[in-house]
Amino acid sequence: MELATQALTDKPRQAYYWRLFATATSFALFGVGGLCLRLLVFPLLSCLPGSAEKHQRRARHTISRLFWFFIRMMQRLGILTFSVEGADKLGRPGQMIIANHPSLIDVVFLIGLMRQTNCVIKQSLFQNPFTRGPVRDAGYISNDGSADMLDAAADALREGQTLIIFPEGTRTTPGAAPAFHRGAAAIALRGATIITPVVIKVSPTTLTKAEPWYRIPKCRFHFSLRVGADIEPQAFATLGPAPQASRKLNDYLHHYFIKELAEDERPTQP
User: For this UniProt entry, which segments traverse the membrane (predicted)?
Assistant: First the structure.
């Protein structure tokens, strides 16, 4: 009986150490992959004929494919499971995708689901030696809080690009409600054809702002991504001057996400 009990307790422990090793390997490969893109892949792609716009499209396509490979690799290694609802509604011209930000890999999932998309990302990625080459070649927008950032994001939408933005600006603190900044709403009113909310849940929580990558949960985590109904930005543009309209749109989006995240607090694992 004692031997049987010992065997049962060893299995979860072995699975934990495997997932820790697999997580370390995955993020190491992610970093090496970013460096290879910067030093090898993108210089080779730039030698192909075509305009700067075509080069940018190649870069975004390459990043999207590699991000989706990374997610599937983590799934096959037993680190995570995932479910995606409504992915067919993503990737339309002039579409702003608004998402909450519970984990480190939210943007990896979203970019991996769409072959051509722009994204507002944190400024530090433009200085990171592993990521600065890919994010610059893809033409992603730095979230530096400047007026130029707002202009670049609105221009991208008016040009017919799909744009991903996280209104929180950083990952959600575990246990706290998301806090939205008004910049995303201002960009949407200036350039978006349509706004599409994406509600992201991670259970159990992991890769949050408060946790280093190696503090993994006791079981593999489940990543749930649900695409909501479209929101018409012009319905808010008529509600008053631009600052007032963006405040009302931001409040609407904030309440939408709080409601959706609170609606089902049961574990999201299937």
Answer: 20-45
